[in-house]
Specification:
Helices cover 45% and strands 16% of the residues. The chain is an alpha/beta fold. Bound molecules: uridine 5'-triphosphate. Uridine 5'-triphosphate binds at residues 9-11, 44-46, 49, 53, 66-67, 70-71, 74, 114-121, 124.
């Protein structure tokens, strides 16, 4: 069975827009897909993590402490998805990428959040994919594709159907200076995917059909990064 790692943005899990109904649809898709694929879902923290981090920053916390607050929220989101999935999910949330990769060899969907300070859950997803020798990474995010600039701020931005690893890397690298494209995937994650040669599918995470097509490596409305 092929292995696929999904990076599920916190902005997709709990944006406070019909979240329970969405999680029910996602859980039923994941249960179906788990009969054909070994799947790991890495959950992001979204605006709840940002809230805790900005409050901690006002309290003068160190960057490691702020990262640990963020990780705690990603693990809370992972717990929500794990409980929504019920017995199809592996009941324990792994704490490291190595542990997650090992768990992917067995049956059951692996659900996790962040691991250690200094990166985001996109990088965790790429590291798990590299260690597990996954076939592809699916970035289920809050925009429908990769664009040359944030389409919400720049309506004329170019939308990409495909990107090479190098162009993708340049795009997310640029994004660290101009908020926007950086929302697509983190730079470390893009670097790891490139060095491991694992294709990245970028799709709107609230569109479960898109997630299914991406997991299957089929045609998507979003962006495919490879080559
Ligand atoms: P996210 O992965 O959600 O970050 O982790 P993000 O990309 O900023 O947020 P989304 O995509 O909108 O959901 C939230 C925060 O948790 C810490 C980081 O501070 C990160 O910004 N974190 C997360 C870690 O330090 N290590 C991890 O492995 C994961």
């Amino acid at each position: 069975m092929d292995k696929v790692v999904i990076s599920l943005g916190g902005s997709v899990i709990v944006p406070d827009e019909g979240d329970a109904a969405f999680l029910m649809r996602l859980a039923s898709l994941l249960r179906r897909l788990s009969e054909e694929y070994h799947i790991c879902v890495v959950c992001g923290g979204g605006k709840v993590a940002r809230y805790y981090i900005s409050t901690g920053r006002e309290l003068g916390m160190t960057s490691e402490e702020l990262d640990n607050l963020g990780i705690a929220v990603t693990r809370l989101n992972a717990t929500l998805l794990l409980l929504a999935l019920g017995e199809t999910a592996v009941p324990a949330i792994p704490r490291t990428e190595e542990e997650a990769a090992r768990m992917m060899d067995h049956r059951g969907i692996v659900i996790m959040g962040g691991t250690s300070p200094g990166h985001t859950t996109d990088a965790v997803a790429a590291l798990v994919a590299e260690k597990a020798k996954a076939t592809r990474i699916v970035n289920a995010t809050s925009v429908d594709a990769a664009y040359s600039a944030d389409p919400r701020r720049f309506p004329d931005a170019t939308r990409f159907t495909t990107l090479t690893f190098r162009k993708f890397h340049d795009l997310v690298d640029k994004g660290t200076h101009e908020a926007g494209p950086s929302d697509i995937f983190d730079r470390l994650g893009a670097e790891i995917a490139m060095r491991a040669g694992i294709p990245v599918y970028i799709v709107h995470g609230r569109n479960v059909e898109e997630i299914e097509n991406a997991v299957r490596g089929g045609a998507v409305k979003g962006t495919v990064v490879q080559g």
